[in-house]
Structures are given as C-alpha cells and as structure tokens.
Amino acid sequence: MKIIYDLGSNNGDDIPYYLLKADKVIAVEANPQLCDFIKKRFPEEILQNRLIVENCAITEKHDGTINFYLHNKYHVRSTLVAPSEAPDDGGFTEKDFTMINIQSVSVGSLIEKHGAPYYAKIDIEGYDENILSAFAASQIFPPFISAESHKIGVFALLSEKLNYNSFKLVDGNSIPNNYNQSVIYSPILDKRVLYSFPHHSAGPFGEDIHGEWMNKGTLLKVLAMQGLGWKDIHASANDKPTLSF
Asked: Residue 72: pLDDT band by 50, 70, 90 thresholds?
C-alpha cells in the first residue's frame, strides 16, 4: 500500500493530486478550522478510509500538547515557532497571532500508527528542519520526500543526515504556469490524466516534476545561483541517473 503524508495540509489543495497517486493520504494540519474545511471537502474519501485527517501539530519527539500560533489574517503564516522567532515573518508581530493549545504527535508515533510513507511532503512554517531531523533520528527514509528550502539546512539534512543522492527543485511561484494541464500517471486509476495544480499548492512530486534528477553538487550550485525561498527540494531514495555540471 502506498501512503502519502501531507504534513502541513493547509486547506487541502494538495490532497486531490495525492489521492490520484496513493492508496491512502494522511493529512496533518494543526489549524482546527482548516481541518474542518478539509473534512467538508472530502467526505467520501474519508468514509472510504482513503483520507485520514489528523488535527495535531507534528513534532520531533513530543506526544502531548503544545502551543500553536494561528495567524489572525493569513492562515499560511500560522506556525509552531514563537512569532518573535519566526523566519521570513513579513514584518508580523506577536499581536498578529492567536496562541492555542493543541495535541502534538511525534513523527515516529504518527508513522507507527499509519504505516511507512511512500512520499512525505513537509511544509510546516519554520519547522521543516526539525521534522527532517526527526525522520533521520527515527531512521525513516521514504522513497520520495520534500521540504521547503527557506534555509540551507534543509538541503544539508536531506543530503547528509538522510543520505539522499537524487534531487529535483520545484519553484512555488511557477507551479500554476509550469504545471497547468499536466499529464500525470495515476496508479489508482491506472491511466494518465490531465491535472492542473492550483496556486499555493505544493505541486507535483517524483517523476511528475519536470527535468532530470540532480546529484548533490548540482543541486547546491543551482541553489547558489537561484537563491533560497519559496522552493521545495524533492529527494528520491531510488537509484536514478543524475544531472551534474
């Protein structure tokens, strides 16, 4: 069984694509209102047990409760990191957030509960490196994994601690244009379908991403030229030809 973990599901815009690619999707979202929204969007998939919505904060090794900071206007800015410490906070201050206390689940506990991931998408504002560290500590190496590259530490964790050797890069701003009416293969439907990725979605993963797989050195050069920011680094555990220069 192929299981995709959508860690930081937001409003669920990535879920329709993941349901085409896997037998089951585990959507993890800390914002209770967004979890309710996801449940209303996908009632049939939840009933069929193809989608499981976990309203919790995913953490390194903490099972219990934890503070979570809801942004009062932009839900995508909600974070586990205290607002005064949040990276790339766009000038927001603590008054822009409302703190709530929510259930927290560690990476190890979540995967022990639901099963080994085929793909894990990590998009947790200011906390991606912590989750990657938890994957490494728990010796969990999905065939495919991705995380936002606002910090170079994401690349270091994927390439060194998790020992991935094949990489692709997805630019967040270009997703609606570059992946509009994309032809993707759905193993669930056993056919190719046209799929358009919406703005603010994480976009495709694996072989659905355009271009060749890069090795570590090439990806580092590309990041040095293009800079960090709203980009997802995708890594593959499969042996693949890699582009190098």
From this structure: confident
